[in-house]
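Appendix C: a fully annotated inverse folding record. The material below is reproduced so that readers can follow the format used throughout the book. The structure is listed first as tokens, followed by the designed sequence.
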């Protein structure tokens, strides 16, 4: 399965303004190219979201760790996966 499948691309297209002030993509192909440029990551669980930020050196306190799924950079796909876009 490719990293940026239709479900991932559709969620990003729908919710991109949670992270960016204006639309950065208007089609699946533009979204795919944009996510590839930023090296966005798709992870399989909330635990993997936390692990990703820890590996990136983001120091998460207890409160932040509990709310990390609500960060602007984190997009919930709806099937247990999450897209992480560092803009």
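Designed amino acids, in order:
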């Amino acid at each position: 399965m490719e990293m940026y499948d239709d479900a991932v691309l559709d969620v990003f297209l729908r919710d991109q303004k949670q992270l960016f002030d204006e639309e950065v993509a208007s089609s699946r192909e533009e979204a795919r190219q944009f996510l590839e440029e930023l090296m966005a990551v798709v992870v399989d669980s909330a635990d993997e979201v936390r692990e990703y930020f820890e590996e990136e050196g983001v120091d998460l306190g207890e409160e932040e760790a509990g709310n990390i799924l609500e960060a602007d950079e984190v997009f919930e796909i709806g099937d247990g996966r999450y897209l992480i876009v560092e803009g």
